[in-house]
Amino acid sequence: MTRTIELKTAIPGPRSREILARKERVVADPLSVFLPVVIEEGRGATLTDVDGNTFIDFTGGVGCLNVGHSHPRVVEAAQEQLAKFSHTDFTIVPYEVYVTLAERLIGASPFRSPAKAAFFNAGTEAVENAIKFARAYTGRPAVIGFEGGFHGRTLLSLSLTSKTHPYKAGLGPFAPEVYRVPFPNDYRGPSADEALAALERALITQVAAETVAAIVIEPVQGEGGFVVAPQAFLDGVRRLCDEHGIVMVVDEVQTGFGRTGKLFAIEHYGIEPDLITVAKSIAAGLPLSGVIGKAEIMDAPGDSAIGGTYVGNPVAQAAALAVLDVIEEEGVCERAAQLGETIRARMESWRERWPQVGDVRGLGAMLVIELVKERNGASCCSSPASTRTASACSHRWSSPTPSSTRLWRSGKRRWTSY
Fold it and tell me: Is residue 63 part of a domain?
């Protein structure tokens, strides 16, 4: 038995089974459950279920908990703000915490020119509003995304998202004037030069450059498999945006707030984007997102063209300020870089030991191994192999190690991440 993991029942336990049975009767089926464990409380990197079993949480609220579950500073800040007021709609009755958060994020962002911010709720809202800003600024309709990209599940963001199953199949038609080009992959291809050539070709064969408002790109693709954009490729994207007057939107919803060893992943590249979208770990799991960008672009839409009832909830923003304090005071970025070095070294040892580990990639603590049938990477884990992995791990819930969680993730997808 480890010092952290404590199993008191079979998994799932009786209370979890009972609650999940109730869920089946009243919750819509598309909201399928990833793990058959119902949480009671979370602390730091662990969660305890309703049956008293404690696990290491490798899901992190899907990238939302870079400072951990229920950090005392975040809880205190949210409670303090909630005791004052919980909502007004900033555009009706403004509040200082909105302005303070904008100041903090702009000060920490990689913009060299004057910048401004706007806040929303979810990452998909941030992406859609970034496109609004870009369209208003350029007067153009088209948007370019990338194969493997994920940008959200509302209509325009879903149109940009590359993955068809389970996100898009049967849910069209999608938004017009959205175009998609290859994303470079050092392991499987295409190369940075090939992907950049494809983008340049698309501006001739798919959509005229003078009609493109924005190129939306993740520095490290999340759903795409933690694929890191090569320096040369991002340099090329920046050059093309400059040449054609296109707004470069860097989607930092997954990569932001220390996960890669920098507050924003784009800082690894020394590139100044035009707009950055943020969400997930910005408020330690409370719903909050935002767009940070060059002031001339952020000011382009007309009066009240950007907004909504919940444009930056004050409780979530108070939590976000506490998150920034924790990141600074506890050295979260430095810790992520150090942790990344340690885990990458361990992953590389796995790759040397087992031919099924085809690739190790990522930035900072945002790391992944890719499982393959053959070391040359010609074919990734097929469904039968994934099924065998999932089947094996379904019998390991009683294991006192966190390997069951890791294996379950690799059974659901063809990579396993940390």
Answer: no
Q: Write a three-state SS string for 95-145.
A: CHHHHHHHHHHHHHCCCCCCEEEEEECCHHHHHHHHHHHHHHHHCCCEEEE
Classify 214 as helix, strand or coil. Answer: strand
User: Cβ–Cβ contacts within 10 Å for residue 347, how many?
Assistant: 20
pLDDT band at 328 (very low <50, low <70, confident <90, very high): very high
> What is the mean predicted confidence (pLDDT) over 304-323?
96
Domain at 217, CATH number: 3.40.640.10
| Ramachandran area for residue 379 (φ above 0: left; ψ -120 to 50: alpha; else beta) | beta
| pLDDT surpasses 70 at 390 | no
State the DSSP H helix or E strand holding residue 383, giving kind and residue range, or none if neither. helix 383-394
Which pTM does this prediction carry?
Answer: 0.90
Residue at which a domain ends, from 9, 27, 57? 57
**CATH number of residue 369's parent domain:** 3.90.1150.10
Q: Is residue 68 part of a domain?
A: no
Q: Please report whether residue 62 resides in a domain.
A: no
Q: What tens digit of pLDDT does each residue of 35-50 get?
A: 899 999 999 999 999 9
- Tally Cβ neighbours within 10 Å of residue 350: 12
Sole residue written with tokens 């302005």: 99
Q: What number is the average pLDDT over the span 333-346? A: 97
Are 258 and 363 part of one and the same domain?
A: no
- Digit-coded pLDDT (tens) for 230-272: 999 999 999 999 999 999 999 999 999 999 999 999 999 999 9
Residue 64, domain member (yes or no): no
Q: What is the CA radius of gyration of the chain?
A: 22
C-alpha span between 175 and 248 (Å, rounded)? 20
Whole domain around residue 371: which residue ranges? 331-418
Residue 218 parent element (H or E)? none
